[in-house]
Design a protein that fits this description.
228 residues; alpha/beta; four-stranded parallel sheet; 4 strands; globular
């Protein structure tokens, strides 16, 4: 009886070691271990954004750094031949407001991709973690729910020095976000086709749906950028 109990204990112990031991995991061959990327993301040289409409939604919080990021994005859009008239830009107070504004713009049907741009810097409280988590998930969900690519252009840094290194010079992340927006807009067009879009750009360019009790065609709405 004692011999059987001892053998059962030994078997369970062995299973646990093989199932969870970090030491055994380290003996796996190096070919199965994921390695960090050796270079930054690259883009095709022939991205043609001449027929692409891009929306940029930026925050007014940390305005100076966000402006640098937006300028980087616009530089990339220009290199991809996106016409200035095909770039719609608006602003919201902070990063927490970006997802809802992006959803409004995506639902307007007037853009092929959206760049949401903001800067979050770690402070003394948990506010930073809550905003980063909520904003990143919500922005991702906007793209999934609307089929309009939404670029997560929000820097989440521990201090202002990290922000400066990522929003200026040759390391301006906004530039990559601009290229990403064009590439994803083209991918969307290839995947689901170029839908018929209303004329104009921005939130104010959509013709409202008629009231349920109304007769005849919907009333015309003046075209214009912005929310109103």
């Amino acid at each position: 009886m004692f011999r059987k109990i001892f053998m059962l204990s030994a078997l369970l112990s062995t299973s646990t070691v093989f199932g969870f031991s970090p030491a055994l995991l380290r003996t796996t061959s190096s070919s199965s271990v994921l390695k960090a990327a050796e270079s930054e993301v690259s883009f095709a040289d022939d991205l043609d954004g001449s027929k692409v409409r891009i929306g940029i939604i930026r925050t007014r919080w940390n305005d100076e750094h966000v402006t640098n990021l937006v300028n980087g994005a616009k530089q990339a859009l220009k290199e991809c031949n996106v016409p200035e008239d095909n770039i719609f830009e608006t602003s919201v107070p902070g990063s927490f407001e970006l997802p809802l504004a992006a959803k409004f713009l995506a639902m307007s049907g007037t853009v092929d991709a959206i760049i949401t741009t903001g800067v979050l810097i770690k402070g003394d409280t948990m506010h930073f973690e809550y905003i980063c988590d909520a904003t990143s998930k919500a922005i991702m969900n906007v793209g999934i729910q609307t089929n309009v690519p939404v670029v997560f252009g929000v820097l989440t840094c521990l201090n202002e020095e990290q922000v400066k290194k990522r929003s200026s010079g040759d390391n301006n992340h906004g530039y990559d976000w601009g290229k990403t927006a064009v590439e994803m807009a083209l991918l969307r067009a290839d995947a689901i086709g170029a839908a018929t879009k209303p004329t104009g750009m921005g939130f104010g360019a959509v013709t409202p749906m008629p009231d349920k009790g109304s007769q005849g065609p919907p009333a015309k709405r003046e075209k214009g950028p912005g929310f109103f």
